[in-house]
């Protein structure tokens, strides 16, 4: 989706939200917790695809590995508050995050493309800067495999829907949670009661082949947060993550969340406020909200289209808390293989062996020129500027992204040269004025977008928030070059280039009328 389209969508959403809040007129909507009558019924009927797997149903060694991974990653300084862009405004996320996943996968949320620390796969050899990071990535991958096996196996067996039902009964449960928040049970406590799981047999087919390819980890210590936003519709309390749908996921794919609070030993039995997941039906003020208390080691699943039909938020408890949110990131245009394929396609129109002083295009067909310029924008703004906006943080933990990003920058430099050649081509005397006008008509919007986005990213890098970060993590406006840099075919600022093209269109327009 284009930035302008997204901005438009965001605005429409904001208006809808304001309208809802206005309808409420300051009143708060009802929501149910396990202590309330009707909680189970509400869960079963309106939150069917929310499934909880309590800590004691998860193998002990996996808990140990996960918890070790969380604290190692924290100690290694891997968690960062992302400087994201919401409705055109830059803000730091309240939670600190790190993303880990399949090599070459990226994940985009809130206009920010995250570049995961890769976990090891059969085909990949990853070098990590520290052994602890290697171990942590391995642990997360193991846990990811486990999650895939409980969600995926049932899906794999989905040819026979009866089996799915049985499989899920054994694996994922929606237990009686009454008083679980107040109860003093630790990880090993048995379930008080187990109910039939909610299974929508047909719709499970949708997730066939869906395997979690990334996990976005969250961390927050509420004691260090001077201000947390209150949940606005229901009065559920302060939030760590506000109401949202998870973005950039394969439609209908599941999301699995592992929850862990690191309580000091000895304080477990204290009556501390626990962390909770809040859920509501999107754009619906009639269905009560649902609050699901989470114990350390609990895992919850948003199955099928729950993430689309509902929104969720995270409500803070007293203690520092980690979560690992396993997702099926949409891979269409967000893998390294994809973007390399795109640049290869574009660069194939540059005559082999072209140099800055001696270069030419194979074809000057308008559709080809247009596609090249579109790919140019995509590589520059969806990859290079996104990557460098997050500073040097990725290179701190693994060198995995360095080479691919370098290669993308080399390709992008060729694309700069191709833009120069394109600009020369449209001024070719042999072109009819009609062809010239057509070409400029197709190319001008792309160059204008390039100019706008360059200014946008430059401004983002110069914001107060960006500058408040330590040097290593500070957003970098890269690539950037000064006027008159002879190593670059074109200037960074395209204002005069664009003005020149506009002039050509106007003057050829006049010519035609004479
Ligand atoms: C998220 C999210 C849920 C949780 O990071 O998108 O919704 O329980 N997290 O941490
Ligand atoms: Mn989420």
From TrEMBL:
The keyword Iron applies. It catalyses: N(6)-methyladenosine in U6 snRNA + 2-oxoglutarate + O2 = adenosine in U6 snRNA + formaldehyde + succinate + CO2; an N(1)-methyladenosine in tRNA + 2-oxoglutarate + O2 = an adenosine in tRNA + formaldehyde + succinate + CO2; an N(6)-methyladenosine in mRNA + 2-oxoglutarate + O2 = an adenosine in mRNA + formaldehyde + succinate + CO2; a 5'-end (N(7)-methyl 5'-triphosphoguanosine)-(N(6),2'-O-dimethyladenosine) in mRNA + 2-oxoglutarate + O2 = a 5'-end (N(7)-methyl 5'-triphosphoguanosine)-(2'-O-methyladenosine) in mRNA + formaldehyde + succinate + CO2. Its cofactor is Fe(2+). It is found in: Cytoplasm; Nucleus speckle. Residues 36-331 form the Alpha-ketoglutarate-dependent dioxygenase FTO catalytic domain. InterPro entries: AlkB-like_sf, FTO, FTO_C, FTO_C_sf, FTO_cat_dom. Pfam families: FTO_CTD (PF12934), FTO_NTD (PF12933). One of its GO terms (biological process) is regulation of multicellular organism growth. Its EC number is 1.14.11.53. Belongs to the fto family. This is Alpha-ketoglutarate-dependent dioxygenase FTO. It comes from Erpetoichthys calabaricus.
């Amino acid at each position: 989706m284009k930035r302008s389209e997204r901005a438009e969508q965001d605005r429409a959403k904001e208006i809808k939200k304001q309208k809802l809040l206005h309808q409420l007129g300051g009143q708060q909507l009802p929501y149910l917790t396990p202590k309330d009558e009707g909680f189970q019924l509400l869960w079963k009927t309106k939150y069917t695809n929310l499934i909880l797997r309590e800590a004691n149903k998860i193998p002990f060694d996996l808990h140990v590995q996960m918890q070790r991974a969380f604290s190692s990653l924290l100690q290694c300084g891997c968690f960062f508050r992302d400087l994201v862009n919401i409705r055109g405004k830059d803000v730091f996320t309240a939670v600190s995050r790190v993303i880990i996943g399949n090599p070459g996968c990226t994940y985009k949320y809130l206009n920010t493309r995250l570049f995961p620390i890769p976990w090891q796969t059969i085909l990949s050899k990853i070098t990590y800067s520290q052994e602890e990071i290697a171990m942590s990535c391995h642990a997360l991958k193991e846990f990811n495999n486990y999650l895939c096996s409980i969600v995926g196996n049932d899906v794999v067996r989905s040819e026979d829907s009866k089996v799915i039902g049985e499989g899920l009964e054994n694996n994922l449960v929606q237990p009686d949670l009454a008083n679980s928040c107040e109860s003093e049970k630790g990880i090993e406590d048995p379930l008080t009661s187990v109910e039939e799981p909610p299974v929508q047999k047909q719709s499970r087919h949708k997730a066939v082949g869906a395997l979690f390819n990334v996990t976005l980890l969250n961390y927050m210590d509420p004691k260090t947060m001077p201000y947390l936003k209150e949940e606005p519709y229901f009065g559920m309390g302060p939030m760590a993550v506000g109401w949202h749908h998870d973005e950039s996921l394969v439609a209908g794919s599941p999301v699995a969340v592992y929850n862990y609070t690191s309580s000091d030993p000895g304080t477990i039995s204290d009556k501390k406020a626990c962390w909770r997941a809040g859920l509501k039906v999107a754009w619906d003020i009639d269905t009560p909200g649902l609050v699901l208390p989470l114990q350390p080691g609990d895992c919850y699943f948003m199955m099928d289209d729950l993430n689309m039909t509902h929104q969720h938020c995270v409500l803070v408890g007293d203690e520092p808390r980690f979560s690992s949110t396993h997702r099926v990131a949409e891979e269409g245009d967000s893998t390294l293989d994809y973007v390399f394929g795109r640049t290869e396609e574009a660069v194939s129109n540059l005559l082999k062996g072209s140099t800055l002083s001696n270069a030419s295009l194979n074809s000057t067909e308008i559709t080809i020129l247009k596609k090249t310029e579109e790919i140019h924008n995509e590589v520059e703004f969806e990859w290079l500027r996104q990557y460098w906006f997050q500073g040097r943080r990725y290179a701190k933990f693994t060198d995995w992204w360095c080479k691919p990003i370098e290669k993308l920058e080399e390709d992008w430099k060729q694309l700069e040269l191709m833009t120069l050649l394109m600009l020369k081509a449209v001024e070719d005397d042999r072109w009819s004025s009609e062809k010239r006008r057509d070409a400029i008509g197709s190319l001008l919007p792309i160059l204008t977008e390039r100019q706008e986005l360059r200014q946008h990213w430059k401004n983002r890098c110069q914001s107060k928030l960006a500058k408040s970060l330590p040097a290593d993590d500070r957003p970098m406006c890269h690539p950037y070059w000064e006027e008159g840099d002879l190593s670059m075919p074109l200037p960074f600022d395209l204002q005069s280039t664009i003005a020149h093209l506009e002039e050509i269109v106007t003057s050829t327009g006049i010519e035609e009328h004479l």
